[in-house]
Amino acid sequence: MPGQSGGDDGGLLRRHEPGAPGAPGALIERAALLVGGLGLVGFAAAVFELVPVSSAVRDLGLYNLVWVAAVVAISVRAARSVGAGQCLGWAALATGLTANVAANLYYSLVLAHLDTVPYPSWADAGLLVLYPLAYVTLVVVLKARVVRWHPSIWLDGLILAFGMAGLGAALLLAPVLDLTGAGFAVAVTNAAYPLGDLLLISTVLA
């Protein structure tokens, strides 16, 4: 029955049913995922020059179509998860993806046409805000779906997270931070991107 644990997960996971499969929200979510998938295929075909499209269609149209479709799908999922304790998590991710879309459009429509592109800029802020909001999504969704945490799970997660962090620090952060003549804001922004990727990957794997 919904809300009970079972199966091969040892009773650790709750079954989650955000809504009936045939409900309008579910249909919108699936349609958005389909549109996003088609947009991704089209963007890849444009990147590898399999189809003749302009750079504006590729960068402004197809690329942002994928992000907008993801925003729609995740926003619908947030609305459908109100009663399951996951609404805040999905809403946070939708907000982060929306900020990404705004950052992409701002860069393509405004910054790209300047003689000197400022760095960092508000576009970087829009891109970087996705990382903490994605962490919120992971925490909220896991908290809602996991019934109980064994100490061994925490220990395994910490070992993997610290291992990934150490590897990433050696391979990614050291070259990024080794900047000569770069200002503090540039160094922090350069470090924020790989650090955000590293922490997010570590969190997912843990």
Please outline the helices and strands.
Layout: H1 24-47, H2 55-80, H3 87-109, H4 122-128, H5 130-145, H6 151-177, H7 184-205
Helix pairs in contact: 1-2, 2-3, 3-4, 3-5, 5-7, 6-7
Broad structural category: mainly alpha
Following the backbone from N to C, one meets helices and strands in this order, namely HHHHHHH
Low-confidence stretches: 1-8
Shape: globular
- Helix coverage percent: over 70%
* Count of DSSP H/I helices: 7
Strand content: under 5%
The averaged pLDDT comes out at 80
Describe the sheet with the most strands: none
Radius of gyration: 20 Å
Oligomer: single chain
Distance between the termini: 29 Å
Total DSSP E strands: 0
